[in-house]
Amino acid sequence: MEETMAALQNDGEEDNAELLALQRIDETCTNFQQNGQYLEALECMERGLVLRQHFFGAGSDEVWRACKTVGEMCNLLAMTYLQQEDFAMVLELLKKAEILTERDPAGRAVTFNNLACYYRRQGKLHAALQYLQKALKIEGRLESVDNPADTYLNACAVLSQLGRHQSALEHAQQALILLQEELSSVLGSDNAGPPKADRVAVLAIAYHNVGVEQEFLKKHNQSLQSYRKGVEVAERYLGGDHAITSTLRNSCVAARRTMLARDPQARLQGMGKKAARRAPGGVVDKTLKKVGGMISPRG
Length: 299
What we know:
The chain has a domain at 147-299: Serine Threonine Protein Phosphatase 5, Tetratricopeptide repeat. The chain is 74% helix and 0% strand. It contains 12 helices and no strands. 38% of the residues are buried.
């Protein structure tokens, strides 16, 4: 009996020690995050995950919640390293995230989106498209998705580079529908607060993407209308001096020049009308559907 009690006491002391160690790890992780030391925070999270697996059991809710948090950090860091072009680190982090999000479908969709960004930067367009298709399939099963339009815009970018412009147009149009639904409560309403600038920027880019694909498909009048709508949204909500507004305005001017060059009759009809406003700078690269590249979904 005494031996049993001693064993239980020892077990209790070991459990308390593990819990205290876990608490210290969590506190250290929080401090690292507050100081912007995210790689160090990730290392702490991984140590905490191992302790949780030992203490709570590998299949426990506590462990899967921790997996979700660690997966989010992996995605955040991966996109940071992608900007720095540290591609080996990007792939390592995203492969970790893929494992960690086994029971987090929304997180796995984000991971697949980010893997698509990675493979596109590597020039592996078919691999990028496969991951985007997987992400769309997952998001299609979820009741709620953060920024679902972004995945369609990324798919549009890859499809366009692959020369599949009709499919790219369809994805851009679907993104446009989703963005209009997302922003319907604030756009065009005097009582609502201003919309988030980053989401308005994506809406303007979506109009631009539609215009790009329509131009590829030789739907020049429709293309020009889409470009103009993108400029209109950007000017109204981002301001005339915003970098995205300037880039989209240049695209609109270039599209109009192309249409006039192809259709002299349109030139005659346009005489006397107000000329499209011009801005300094070059025309946006039509192979980049988003200004600067693909949209990186939620880190």
